[in-house]
Amino acid sequence: MATYKEIRGTQIEAVSSDPSNPVEGQVWYNTTSNVLKGQVLTSAATWATSADMNNTNFGMGGDGTVTTAIASGGANTPSDKTHKCETFNGTSWTEQGNMNTRKYYGSNAGNSTAGLAFGGEPADPGRADSETFNGSSWTEAADLNTGRESITGSGTQTAGIAVAGSPNLAITEQFNGSSWTEVADLNTGRVSLATTGATNTAILSFGGNVSPKAQTESWNGSSWTEVNDLNTGRPSLAGSGSYTSAIASASSSSPKGQTEIWNGTNWTTSTDLNTGRDGGRAAGADNTEGIHFGGRNEPTIYASTEEFTGAGASVTRTFTDS
């Protein structure tokens, strides 16, 4: 019988802690936990429980990756708008300095060390104010040209994008670090949709209301192009990832936990969240990993976080004799 070393070209190492960046097929013995482990590709997507936020929250802004997520604003109860901010490092949530303005149903761009928050309510037809975050505190920044709530956005602190909003708007604005500029409209105006993208020149928008929307549109920095629809139209969903590799999760319509992944061309139905909800937010770099946090399923408001591992992602497994 061939040995592991003959098959893989390496021996099984005995180490006191797991490797920081293992490769597929690597196997090691952890002498601290006394278990045999290896790096494998997942065959099916899963949502797993992660650390709770410090506060129950829905309608907050959120963005970042699974290790640099930010959540700001929102509501702890239907009548309690908040200006609290929390950041996530991949393991736990930490409360940071409060925003200058209490609001919910605004949006965020950026991450836990360089964030941007904009729009929201209460205001009629919505707030125009923006704030920037430096990792610990918030500073007021230039206002949007059009104040609105139920807005969405993505990008970075110095290259952000604000999209759509109530009442059923198609307006798009770009932020350059100092001011907002109105650019080309969405093809279909809507509210409570989601966007993903790491820069304001490569964005994906999808879902929304009024009446559940399945439309997906791609932004190239100058115009929106309609691409393939979600399999299930829905409002009040969350998005994470990039414009070529994204996750759409949750909904205010049943089933509330539905998840789809985008590969740059098509949406594919994936594993549902363990707890269906709407009004939560998501963070992540692509469609192989992400987190979904907060939200509500009336009358319950959640602090819970779930972590997504997509099919084909590289994960560490413990080997057993069962």
Give an account of the 3D structure.
The protein is an all-beta fold and 322 residues long. It folds into two domains: 38 residues, no CATH class; 264 residues, Neuraminidase. The protein is built from one helix and 32 strands. The longest helix has 5 residues. The radius of gyration is 20 Å and the shape is globular. It starts with a helix and ends with a strand.
> How would the global form be characterised?
globular
Query: Whole-Å distance between the termini?
Result: 22 Å
Determine the structural class based on helices, strands and strand pairing: mainly beta
Q: CATH first level of the largest domain: which class?
A: Mainly Beta
CATH superfamily of the largest domain: Kelch-type beta propeller
How does the major sheet shape up? 4 strands, mixed
**DSSP helix fraction:** under 10%
Break the fold down into its secondary structure elements and pairings:
Elements (H helix, E strand, L loop, with lengths): L3 H5 L4 E3 L11 E4 L4 E7 L4 E4 L11 E3 L5 E4 L2 E3 L2 E2 L3 E4 L4 E4 L10 E4 L4 E4 L11 E4 L4 E4 L10 E4 L4 E6 L3 E7 L4 E4 L10 E6 L2 E5 L9 E4 L4 E4 L10 E4 L4 E4 L9 E4 L4 E3 L11 E6 L2 E5 L2 E2 L2 E2 L3 E5 L4 E6 L3
Summarize the structure.
This protein is mostly beta strands and 322 residues long. 2% of the residues lie in helices and 42% in strands.
Primary descriptors:
Neuraminidase; 1 helix; globular; 2 domains; 4-stranded antiparallel beta sheet; 322 residues; mainly beta
